[in-house]
Amino acid sequence: MKETESPSRKTGRPLSFDRKDVLEKAMLAFWGGGYETTSITDLTAAMGVTAPSLYAAFGNKQQLFLEAVRLYAGDHTVLEQTMAVAPTARDAVAQMLRGAAILYTGETTPPGCLLASSAATGSPDAAYVRDAVAAERRKVRNIVIRRIELDIAKGLMASHTCPATLADLTLAVTQGMSVLARDGADRARLLAIADAATTGWNLFKA
Description:
Blueprint: H1 19-37, H2 40-47, H3 51-58, H4 61-73, H5 76-85, H6 89-104, H7 114-117, H8 126-154, H9 163-182, H10 187-197
């Protein structure tokens, strides 16, 4: 049986574990090892459940990963609201980048970003994983774009500003910081990058 397939499941049996708790443990396992190299055996060991219980609760490895990604990404409405109350789009993005630097260097979590570390290479599930991760990035990109468009409409940024380009630059920086964190960069180094990343935004002041 492939790891992404689930066996016939019995219905009606209550779960004998806290679903949210084991999902968080699965998230950390994927975060540390990536999708492809994190096996069902790795997941059950990290989650403290049996393979049949994993399948019964989450369906299969793909579905478990998707739930783990959603847990990691959190409620995007919160991000949008946080960016909306920032004085400017530049402030909003700077805050987001500093938050990423702190997240990527957490003492109790794997280094880097789960989305960046979960790229599948050569796996039969490569397209699935790529699409799931890309969907989360698009949500963040669109939030950044809308915040920049708001500043343009308010006359805080020049009319020639390209929101999509600045949003793409923001995502590129976050993913680059993730790579550096995986390579051992400490928090101070990533925070310095986060602070430097929006320096060029002065070119787009109205």
